[in-house]
Every structure is written in structure tokens, then in C-alpha cells.
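Quick one: structure for this chain?
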Amino acid sequence: MPQLRSLPVIVRLTVLASLTVLCLSAVAPRAEAQASSTDPSPESSSVSTSTARGSDDPSADAPAPSASAPTSRPASADPRIAEQLERIGIHYEVDSDGDYQVVIAINEQRTHLAYIMSSTETFRALDVRVIWAVANRMSTSELPADLAQRLLRENLRTIAGSWAITDDQLLFTMRIPADADDQTLLSALEIVLASADRMEQELTDGADEF
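Got it. Here's what it folds into:
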């Protein structure tokens, strides 16, 4: 597990219990970051925050704008996210693409990295933001059929968020309103981090890389 720096701020969160999900989107972010997985129905645990581990922009290659395709705003740090994280008490870093990185302690032994995208995706009246975390290094060609079927079944059952795979990483992603309030942002982070860390533990025999 990467070495964490000392925290200027500590927040205690309660990882959501009994998470079940609804598939929101099949569009996967472009990932070159580092992250992991936790059970969407984890037991209550103490969660603190720390500085993020570095990575490149993982957002998906945006489709060319058209009448039927969502468009993405330019990637610059959205000040609304900084204000929210500071109010909640979560320390963050902003990468070169303007996206927010947070490392949160799942429990006393494990941490996980999540990304909050500054750019938003819009379609008509919809304006949504992606939050995501890496669960494992895995390409589409390496994804076993039984695991793929399981992830699709989980996508159907989850309350919010979905599994996605890029060229080399398995991700858990969630889309929330771009103007979501503090509690919605915090809840989304809890679900994404719990889901990704759970799957990382399962697929890597307990490793804590992400």
C-alpha cells in the first residue's frame, strides 16, 4: 500500500451498509489511475481521509458532440468540489487535468483512492459528474466470462453506480448531479470506495494497491 502523508483534516464516515445497485451507464471513464474495492454492504467502519495518490486523467474518451450524444465541458478544476470537500473535511489533491483525488481509509488496515471529475457530462437538462475508483488491473481480454456475468448482475442490483472496464483496469463508477449537495457527494464516495475496495480484496487475495 502506498505511503500516506499526514492529514490536515480527519473525518469519520460510516461506510454504507447493505448496498444494492441500479445500472446507470455503460460509458466507462478513461483510466490511467490507481484504486481498489469494498463490499457494497460493508459493516460500519471508521473512515478517515488523506492526500491522494497521483495518476493521470481516467475519464473516458468523449464521443464527438452530436444531437444524441452527451458532451463534456473542458477539464478545469471545478471550485464547487473543493468547497464541498473542505466543508465535509476530506483532504484532496487536484491533478494536472483538474480532477480531484481523495484517499479515504476504509478501515484501520485499508485505504482507497477515488477520483471526482471536474468536467461534467451534459445531455439536454441533464448535467452529471463522474466519480470512480479502480478495483483491479485487468483488460477486456483478461476478464473471465463468469466474472463479467457477475459484474453485470451486480450492475442490475446496485442502488447507484456500475462496474466498467477500460483497456487495462476494472472500475466502479457513479454519476451524480453536477450540483449535488454535500451529503450526496459523500454518499457517492462511500459507495464507490466500498465497492471498489471489496472487489480489489477479492480479486487480489487481500492486496491494497489502489
